[in-house]
Amino acid sequence: MISAVRAGDAHAVEALLSAGADPDARDEHGTPALCLAIETYAVEVVRLLATHGADPDRCGPDGVRPLRKAVDSGSPAVVGATVHNTAEWRRHREAELLEARSLARHWYETGVEAELRRRTGAQGAAARTHVQDDEYTGVDEFSLGGTAVRDGHAAILTELEKALGLRPPFEELLERALTRPDQQHATWAASTLLLSHRRDRETWDAAAALSADPDPVHRLFGTEVLRLTHLFDESEEDRFAAPTLELFLNRSAQEQDTAVLTELLTGLAEHADPRGDERLLSCAGHPDPRVRHAVAFGFDRWAPAFPDTVRKALVDLMADPDADVRQGACRTVADSRDRAPELAEAMAALLDDASRPVRVSAVHGLARHDDERCVEGARRLPPAPPGTSYEYDLDEVWRYERRRDGR
Q1: Which residues, 6+ apart, have CB-to-CB distance to 373 below 8 Å?
Q2: 131 has which bridge partners?
Q3: In 3D, which of 324, 381, 322 has the Cα closest to residue 351?
């Protein structure tokens, strides 16, 4: 068990736990498996151990409990895996959550580098590297004096407050996000996600006002909160859908900042309104590939057929200079119900694309459109680079052959 934990091998750990291994196993120094996993940022291993009942009070030789160790790590993903059941923690461990919240706030207010220097006594600048913390967000990792800490403490603070049932003000969550103005950073994401789930008039009004702010970073934050509010609202009422759509239509016609425009177009696509298609079409030739990518992904793929103007735009985008744009347009066509010959021809033209992911998407799309060329396209694919995860899109070729042979 200890060897598997040290290696970060989640599959081996899961197999051992399922076979009855002790989740509280210790290494030769007396450090519990849970603490070892936290120290090495092995998020899935932490989650497995916590789920299988690892003792949250069991300390190692340093006397530090797992939750405190997780907060010190600066990894929101590790903390989330440690506190795997917030309802259980709130019933029995509220005092420890409050203590963890104070610790996260201390790191956030002091700053990672300053606190690292205080704890280690080391001088000089810390080494800084951007790392992926979970599937969707990243953080920066600081190394100094032989110790590494990630800078996700503001996000950890936000998540712990959520677990405690606290409600930090909109302005405070905005202030935290602005310390890391990056949509892919865990700190920004924690603030926008928390606000989007409130779905109340006060929050919507604050975000709407911010979306017209002179500062593009403020506009981006407000726009993302509004977009996510609609995206995650699964109620029949969805009372903010109509005003958000109108706001996005108005703002997208005026917006000059690329990041904000991309967010607005992504939001319009999620509303599936014909007026949104008009705005998307107007941006199909935008000089920034991020905007063109949002356009390529944005058209309503559930309609029986694309309008002629949209069909032409998608054909053009499948020949875009940017590989991500080509792939996005190809995926939109692949998932659509439109079987126009020119769309199939545009996908077939990508079977020899310089980008392997684009070629995979073209094979997938042709298979979904019952086009025999997918078989040869799959056969001619170059080998996947080492470490490539399983390409489920290629399974569509097998399904096509089943349908073809069944006929």
Answers
A1: 348, 351, 366
A2: 139
A3: 381
Rounded to 5 degrees, what angle do the CA atoms 383, 385, 390 make?
85
Domain regions of the chain by residue span: 1-64, 272-407
Kindly give the interhelix angle for 308-317 and 274-282, rounded to the nearest 10 degrees. 40
pLDDT tens readout for residues 230-278:
999 988 788 999 999 999 999 999 999 999 999 999 999 999 888 999 9
Q: Which residues pair with 26 in a beta bridge?
A: 32
- Domain 272-407 in CATH: superfamily? Leucine-rich Repeat Variant (1.25.10.10)
| Nearest Cα to Cα of residue 169 among 148, 138, 200 | 200
Q: In this predicted structure, which of 170-174, 198-202, 238-242 has the lowest mean pLDDT?
A: 238-242
Dihedral sign of CA atoms 75, 81, 87, 90 in order? negative
The tokens of 32 are what? 């519990």
- Confidence (pTM): 0.90
CATH number of the domain located at residue range(s) 1-64 in this protein? 1.25.40.20
